[in-house]
Amino acid sequence: MTNTPEAQRPPLPRLTELSATAGCAAKIGQADLHRALSHLPQHADPRLVVGHATSDDAAVYQLSDDIALVETVDIFTPIVDNPYDYGRIAAANALSDVYAMGARPISALSFIAWPMAERGPEELGEILRGAADVCKLAEIVIAGGHSIVDKEPKFGLFVTGLSHPKAIVTNAGGRPGDVLVLTKPIGTGVLTTAVKRGAMAPEDLRQAIESMASLNRAACAAMLAVGVQACTDVTGFGLLGHLGNVLRASSIARGQAIGARLHIDEIPWLDHAVDMAADNICPGGSRRNLEYAAPNVSFSASIPTHMQLLMADAQTSGGLLIAVAPKKLDALLMELSQRDVAVRAVIGELLAVDDPGAIAVV
Ligand code: CO
Ligand code: CO
Ligand code: CO
Predict the structure, then answer these.
(1) What residues act catalytically?
(2) What's residue 6's pLDDT?
(3) 6-167 — its CATH code?
(4) What is the DSSP string of 19-83?
């Protein structure tokens, strides 16, 4: 056998072809996750203010009266083919959980799984450059990390943040009457799947890529300026799944059944997302999300199945979902606008209901 010259080698597969599921759509489903997590002991350390029990965005450990440590990790498979964009998106997504807690990131560690023999170090360098550029916007550096050889690429960050213990925004503070505000459009799961299947041109993914690569930093600053009740970011479990986590945590915290009403006409969609969903394009993770949410969700009869799936579409690096007291809504919208947060959609409200976590989509 002779050596194949460089030019005649078959082209490498696209990054997204190396994994079956992409981005946050690769998350383990909520039902299986809860079953597995039930083996973890409940934490007894009173300084662990937020642990895994409330499915919040990050763990919070109180170091002193004034300082709380916020810790989170997010790693996923390639969501797009361009390595630089993959790195940006992975970094923005990991940082998002710190912003969702109302905290300020201070440092990050990277995790890399990479098929080095097949693809070499160049693309990996681009992934890291993308991540570093986004971290720079967050005013932090990647301080270190860990890497392994793996057939399926994976990349992400462990992020550490700081906050005042009293300034932490959890999933558990929602009250009936609070208004729900969302700061990025929905549809990244459907759109990245459409490109993967060749149903949409990669150029049409630009808006989604820029949305996924943008930080929730400004939205976080806006909500801190106003003071809000609860917050999470919309990622792999979709809008319905992450809202469900807020409703359940808030119901337990208040000892009252809290649900929500969502107005489907107010939900901001990424371009092409509704068309692609209507063409039956949907990642497996989004179908799983809708199945998991279904017992708690009622849809108006006029809402077709593909729109129901979009409400559960597995997002990567989605926006903040904020519950704010009605009297502070205008102030929040103004703070968001002043910080150039382009999407500030008022999508629904929390309600007192019979079953905790019940969601009506109208
Ligand atoms: Co989160
Ligand atoms: Co996360
Ligand atoms: Co949260």
Answers:
(1) 24
(2) 53
(3) 3.30.1330.10
(4) -SS-GGGGSPPHHHHHHHHTTSPPP--TTEEE-GGGT-SSEEEE-SSS-EEEEEEEEE--SSS-H
